[in-house]
Design a protein that fits this description.
By secondary structure, this protein is α/β, with parallel strands linked by helices. Helix content is about 45%, strand content about 10%. The chain folds into three domains: about 55 residues; about 160 residues, P-loop containing nucleotide triphosphate hydrolases (Rossmann fold), CATH 3.40.50.300; about 90 residues, Helicase, Ruva Protein, domain 3 (Orthogonal Bundle).
Length: about 400
């Protein structure tokens, strides 16, 4: 009795039942993608051609609900403010591509480029959270991948090397959550080895797990790359597109034309093999004053809610004071978060400790000062934020 053959057959059956790598990686499995023992089993114990035919006929994962583009766009636009054109187009692309029963590549590989702090990373997170039945998102900080050794945490270390006894984060996430959004943040800051490590994932539909040398499918995933490279040129192009969309006589670019122009700009920063595998490049525009005001209100409301408090409508002068300070090139939402926390954190925590549930912010037009106070007892002396002059 050929125990080696039987053992390999058992391994093959286990891999199939678990829905792992090669067979799951494609509707039509190519022999060269399989470890040699499994190729032998396919030839000796089944009909490979019939297997491929059955795999091609299989139904998509019934646990994953069809994606409605309008609903997805609405949910993402509630979190990513001021980039509605990009969000709407991306939602439509995701809905269309995810409906395919047979895929040999990921649902999408999208690059989002533009100024920092405008919501590029948040876009990927919001999409992952909004997709029904999906495994959320997996964030990879590409700026930390400085050499080949740094890839071990994602793909596993080769047998015998340090870390080979530990599971790789990205591989485990994909195995547990085939339908997921993978965010490759600040992609241009990674070393060339790290950038090239994803080429097979985008072209062939799999990533090789180094420790066990198995293939992990990426055909049910969405890759969203973010980049600040050539941010001024990209921002100018996006700003032109936004302006042209409101002027019928202007030369509005199609989404494909805009993508190709962005791709041409980025050729100086990203290698050609990477750019050639990206399905669409999206340009984030600088935030408009209206969008900045909306983001300020969102952050302020969230800051108050973090203390378990509710906030009454905010005077527009308060929002304007922040817009005046941050409506400038180089704006970063993270700076605004810190500023608002500094302005209102102490007052909110003090009122919370006194049992207050609802607060309001009063604006004095003469002194341009803000005052935070409880709604439930207006007779008490108002409790001011630590820094209130003109929102600074």
């Amino acid at each position: 009795m050929d125990w080696e053959l039987i053992g390999t057959a058992a391994l093959f059956t286990l891999l199939t039942l678990l829905g792992l790598a090669p067979l799951r990686a494609a509707g039509l499995v190519k022999d060269h993608q399989l470890p040699e023992p499994l190729v032998k089993i396919l030839d000796q114990m089944t009909d490979p051609a019939r297997l491929r035919e059955l795999l091609a006929q299989r139904q998509p994962n019934q646990k994953i609900k069809p994606i409605d583009a309008a609903t997805l766009a609405e949910q993402v636009n509630s979190r990513v403010i001021g980039q509605e054109a990009v969000v709407n187009e991306l939602a439509a692309l995701i809905a269309s591509r995810s409906a395919k029963v047979h895929r040999r590549r990921p649902i999408g590989v999208f690059l989002v480029s533009g100024p920092p702090g405008t919501g590029k990373s948040e876009l990927g997170k919001a999409i992952g959270d909004a997709l029904p039945g999906w495994g959320g998102h997996y964030l990879v900080e590409m700026n930390k991948l400085k050499d080949a050794a740094s890839l071990n945490s994602l793909f596993g270390a080769a047998p015998g090397f340090v870390g080979s006894d530990r599971k790789a984060g990205l591989m485990n996430h994909l195995l547990d959550n085939p339908n997921t959004v993978i965010i490759l943040d600040e992609f241009e800051k990674a070393c060339l080895d790290a950038q090239n490590a994803f080429l097979a994932a985008w072209q062939e539909g799999y990533i090789r797990e180094t420790t066990q040398s198995t293939l992990v499918s990426t055909t049910d995933a969405i890759f969203i790359l973010t980049s600040n490279a050539k941010e001024k040129e990209i921002a100018a192009l996006a700003a032109y597109q936004r302006q042209a969309s409101g002027n019928q006589n202007a030369g509005l670019l199609t989404s494909e034309e805009l993508s190709e122009r962005c791709r041409a700009i980025l050729r100086q920063e990203l290698p050609s093999p990477v750019l050639s595998r990206i399905d669409r490049v999206f340009a984030f525009a600088p935030l408009s004053p209206e969008a900045l005001a909306a983001i300020t209100l969102k952050i302020l409301t969230e800051e108050v809610a973090d203390y378990g408090l509710t906030l009454r409508p905010v005077p527009p002068q308060i929002l304007l004071s922040y817009v005046d300070q941050y409506d400038r090139p180089g704006f970063d939402t993270r700076d605004l978060y810190r500023h608002i926390e500094r302005d209102f954190g102490t007052a909110a925590s003090t009122l919370k400790a006194e049992g207050v549930r609802e607060i309001e912010i009063i604006y004095d037009a003469k002194t341009t000062e803000m005052t935070v106070r409880a709604v439930s007892d207006k007779s008490q002396a108002p409790k001011a934020a630590p820094r209130t002059k003109g929102g600074a």
